[in-house]
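#data-curation
PF: Archiving a pair of folding outputs for the training set. Convention for this channel: one message per protein, sequence first, structure tokens after, nothing in between. First:
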Amino acid sequence: MDDVLQIEPLAGRRFAATGIALEPAPFCERFSLRAGPEEVAEVGKEIGIALPVKPKSSKTLKKISALWLGPDEWLIMAAPETGLSAKMSKLDGTLCSAVDVSHRNTAIYVEGPNALAVLNAGCPQNLSLTAFPKGACSRTIIGKSEIILLRESPERFRVECWRSFSDYVWNFLVDAGKSAQI
């Protein structure tokens, strides 16, 4: 990936209002990982992070995050300097599927005391701290777009979406942020 020019679709955009801030997340490597229960420990050892096996959970270690999306599915995200691609290529002998989706997705940080109100304007999921605590993640929707939502702290969320829907998701969140001011 070193020789590829990466252009982020939301580069340069920012939105801030009372109690809410939106910011595009920096580029990261992303892999859609599928593995059976017999391979989970081996895959985790190879990539350097134990894969979470509890629904709606995630783990982060040394700039690598693993998000549980289903009984045999994870989204693995990492800063480019972690060498995630090289680690994933070592899985050749393991019965699993690891597909690089780095160029398919982008992400938006939604942060502030009004983050819940902004997200709940288009996300039907219960995002209270009790139901969706720090580290919780799930595949859900915002408006009409599928997203993967990760709660990084009580007032900070990471919204993963496909690049082709990123303008829609951004504008939806901005509109919801403006409405949260009323």
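PF: Second:
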Amino acid sequence: MNEKMPAGFWVRLGARAIDGLLIGIFIVALTFIIFQGFSQDNSAFNSIATVYYVVLPALWAGYTVGKKAVGVRIVKKDGTDVGFGRMILREVVGGIVYAVTLGIGAIVSAFMVGMREDKRAIHDLIGGTYVTHREPETSSAGQAVESSYI
């Protein structure tokens, strides 16, 4: 049994779909409240999504709402909790790579998650992270161990 318990393609896709749905509902509600109607501008969605995918895992032991729902989380390569620096590398720099390659990098990443033994995608390699089924370690008091900032 692999001690790292890496998460595969389908569970990661499910988590991303849940997160996308939640962010989408939030954005639609917010734009409807602000503009009294719907907006075709995707910049708000992209900005809020980026903040969500960077901040939430850094503060919540590698979880997003979708990842928590399917039982996976993001950790550093050594298995410890991620911080803001790692998540910026993973999400922002990884996203730039996917944009520069016109989405080809994202397709390659999907195959990497499906075929590599460690299930790491390009953004995982950039950020020094992986997605695991392992729960965070807890202290003797039963609280999750604090995450670092990097």
